[in-house]
Design goal:
Blueprint lengths: L2 E2 L13 H10 L4 E4 L8 H11 L2 E12 L2 E8 L6 H27 L6 H7 L8 H10 L6 H9 L12 E2 H10 L3 E4 L13 H10 L3 E5 L5 H13 L3 E4 L20 H18 L10
Parallel strand pairs: 1-2, 2-3, 3-5, 6-7, 7-8
Antiparallel strand pairs: 3-4, 4-6
The structure holds adenosine monophosphate, zinc ion (ZN) and fe (iii) ion (FE) (2 copies).
One fe (iii) ion binds next to loops.
């Protein structure tokens, strides 16, 4: 069983449609793929339909932008009830924050003398419910200002870049609660990855565990081998689920091919058990693999 629990479609900043993503997952030999677009559920229905066609089990997920002790943390949520209003309200606030900052980012680039407009960004983020800096990067590539997303982040869009603009993020503690109340399972994405991660030490994870955190994404391209070993030990100590995944973005992120990291079948079983427990406790959440 090959299981990849973190991928993005063009409903956020990936480059494949949900159906193309699932088709690519089938060709990559995956049995289970989670679709985890940023801050939205917009790709689920299409991905599930494609999963039936290709014989791939599609796990419904989301990657939520949160903040913990002043730092940005990405939280993966699996199998939440998409009709749980307190959760959708918070996701809507994040999406509004994404949209609100776009004119500011474009304005800063214009101040730098770059002839970019909001329409250029809208043209490349066509199907996306969650717009983001990667779309600005694609627009800059289209205009010939840079040659890749990476170069756009390095020169303009990264946290210390001249066109960086902060945006609203949910509180991590609250988001863990919301996902659980929605009958879902929460896993911290790439906790010791390329971004700052103050707060996410053993004590921080213990605190989050007490609030209801279910797991840690250990096997991720942003973690080298010693980092994975230390995180795995920490997860084992705290009895947290261990996941592994590609964080695939189509052509949008190099070195993140589907299935480049995978989740062990028994860890997926733990995740599905947790979802069943949370769904029973909250009266929300639905079966893991609908229609398969
Ligand atoms: P945003 O969601 O607008 O804050 O943009 C952050 C997203 O951009 C992350 O989730 C990554 O997927 C992506 N990203 C960050 N750094 C890079 C990079 N150097 N090259 C390509 N994509 C990146
Ligand atoms: Zn992304
Ligand atoms: Fe992430
Ligand atoms: Fe991601």
């Amino acid at each position: 069983m090959r299981i990849d629990l973190h991928t993005h479609s063009d409903r956020s900043d990936g480059t494949l449609s949900p159906a193309e993503l699932v088709g690519a997952a089938a060709r990559a030999g995956l049995d289970v793929v989670a679709i985890t677009d940023h801050d939205c559920f917009a790709g689920w229905a299409e991905a599930i339909r494609a999963g039936r066609e290709h014989g791939v089990k599609v796990l419904r997920g989301v990657e939520v932008s949160t903040r913990f002790r002043g730092a940005s943390v990405h939280l993966l949520g699996y199998l939440p009830d998409p009709a749980y209003e307190p959760l959708t309200a918070e996701l809507d606030a994040i999406l509004a924050g994404r949209n609100d900052r776009m004119p500011q980012i474009v304005g800063r680039l214009q101040d730098l003398g770059i002839a970019i407009t909001e329409a250029d960004v809208a043209a490349v983020s066509g199907e996306a419910a969650a717009s983001g800096r990667p779309h600005v990067a694609d627009a800059l590539v289209g205009l010939g200002v840079v040659t890749s997303r990476d170069e756009a982040f390095a020169r303009y869009l990264g946290p210390s870049g001249p066109a960086y603009v902060d945006r609203y993020a949910a509180g991590l503690e609250r988001m863990i609660e919301l996902i659980r109340e929605a009958g879902g399972v929460s896993v911290v994405a790439h906790p010791w990855g390329r971004y700052e991660h103050r707060g996410l030490d053993a004590e921080g994870f213990a605190e989050l565990r007490a609030l209801g955190l279910d797991g840690i994404e250990v096997d991720h391209q942003d973690h080298d081998a010693p980092t994975r070993d230390r995180l795995r030990a920490l997860a084992t100590d705290l009895d947290l689920i261990v996941t592994g995944s590609s964080d695939f973005h189509g052509a949008g992120k190099v070195g993140h091919e589907l299935g480049c990291n995978t989740t062990a079948p028994e860890q997926l079983e733990h995740l599905l058990d947790a979802a069943r427990r949370h769904a029973a406790a909250s009266g929300r959440g639905v079966s893991a693999f609908e229609g398969i």
